[in-house]
């Protein structure tokens, strides 16, 4: 019931006008859509609680793009059947402005900041997105927010309560508990999905006074960064994918190889350790032989050689 009540405050923040909405806008939102606001150390306890359940609200929230000021270009479903970040993961990964709104993209004339120049076929892929964007039927009205979990498209606390209680906590994580993996990995995966793993951003929230940067790079360490966005994590996933027969896009390989060329020794040793574990006694013979021949100093070249499709 408490989650339902907190979701109601999100709904009122987006759909009503008043003094407290103006205060929240000035102190926390500062012109950003609610899905782009990040947690800060000086957040009030009430605002911190709202941020904790924001993902529940966003799951039931549906946005109809008009002027694009409340719509995230990459992460909201507005142009195609789903988010652009899912349909075009490589472009999303290369874009610096991951939380840019549709309106801001139009103001920039379709020129967001990328980490590097886009070569074919990525450039053609981006031009296709830009063409679809400029053919979209925009208007001067504000974006309209509706509610998916109610037939009348308006928010009710009952709809949130019914949604949360319809599937129990155990059913929600059945894909973990029923998987054929060691039990300790199930526990860790469950904690990971609940956002309870003690990455540095979570420890800082618990008054830990330490360096918030990732061990392998200079980016802030979050669950998403450490396990998916960090170059070391990407390299591990790409190498395991290659072992399983997946074709890894050359653009991702180039990005990983360039980053690891200047990476830390710890990251390179970690990747080597993972590969040894994954190859196993009857694993990929080429990988096992390369692991014996390659030291940590030549790991980037080894990764580039064995990940390429």
If you had to describe this structure to a student in words, what would you say it looks like?
The chain has helices spanning 2-15, 19-29, 45-52, 54-60, 84-87, 89-94, 102-107, 122-134, 157-166, 169-172, 174-177, 183-193, 200-205, 223-229, 231-243, 250-261, 265-279, 285-293, 299-307, and strands spanning 61-64, 144-147. It has 309 residues and is an all-alpha fold. The protein has three domains: 2-65 and 144-165, no CATH class; 66-142; 230-307, no CATH class. It has a two-stranded antiparallel ribbon with strand order 1-2. Helix 1 crosses helix 9, helix 14 (223-229) packs across helix 15 and helix 15 (231-243) packs across helix 16. The longest helix is centred in the last third of the chain and has 15 residues, at 265-279. The chain starts with a helix and ends with a helix. Mean pLDDT is 80; it is low at 290-302 and 304-309.
| Beta-strand content estimate | under 5%
Distance between the first and last residues' Cα: 51 Å
Helical fraction equals 40-55%
Mean pLDDT: 80
Rough outline: globular
DSSP strand count: 2
| Lateral strand order in the biggest sheet | 1-2
Q: For the report, how would you describe the main beta sheet?
A: 2 strands, antiparallel
Q: Helix count?
A: 19
Radius of gyration: 22 Å
Number of domain units: 3
Q: Class by helix and strand content? A: mainly alpha
Low-confidence region ranges: 290-302, 304-309
H/E series: HHHHEHHHHEHHHHHHHHHHH
């Amino acid at each position: 019931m408490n989650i339902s009540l907190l979701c109601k405050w999100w709904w009122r923040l987006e759909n009503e006008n008043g003094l407290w909405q103006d205060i929240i806008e000035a102190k926390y939102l500062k012109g950003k859509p609610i899905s782009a606001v990040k947690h800060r150390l000086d957040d009030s306890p009430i605002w911190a609680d709202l941020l904790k359940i924001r993902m529940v609200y966003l799951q039931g929230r549906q946005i109809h793009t008009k002027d694009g000021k409340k719509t995230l270009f990459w992460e909201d479903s507005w142009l195609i059947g789903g988010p652009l970040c899912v349909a075009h993961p490589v472009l999303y990964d290369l874009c610096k402005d991951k939380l840019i709104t549709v309106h801001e993209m139009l103001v920039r004339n379709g020129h967001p900041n990328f980490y590097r120049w886009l070569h074919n076929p990525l450039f053609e892929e981006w031009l296709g997105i830009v063409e679809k964007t400029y053919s979209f039927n925009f208007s001067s009205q504000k974006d309209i927010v509706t509610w998916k979990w109610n037939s009348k498209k308006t928010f009710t606390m009952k709809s949130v309560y019914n949604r949360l209680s319809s599937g129990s906590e155990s059913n929600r994580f059945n894909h973990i508990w029923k998987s054929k993996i060691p039990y300790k990995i199930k526990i860790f995966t469950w904690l990971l999905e609940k956002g309870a793993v003690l990455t540095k951003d979570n420890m800082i929230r618990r008054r830990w006074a330490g360096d918030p940067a990732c061990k392998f790079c200079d980016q802030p360490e979050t669950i998403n960064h450490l396990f998916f966005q960090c170059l070391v994590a990407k390299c591990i996933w790409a190498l395991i994918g290659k072992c399983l027969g997946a074709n890894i896009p050359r653009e991702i390989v180039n990005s990983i190889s360039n980053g690891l060329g200047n990476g830390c020794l710890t990251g390179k040793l970690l990747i080597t350790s993972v590969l040894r574990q994954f190859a196993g006694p009857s694993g990929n013979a080429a990988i096992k032989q390369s692991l014996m021949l390659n030291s940590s100093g030549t790991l980037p070249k080894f990764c580039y050689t064995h990940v390429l499709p």
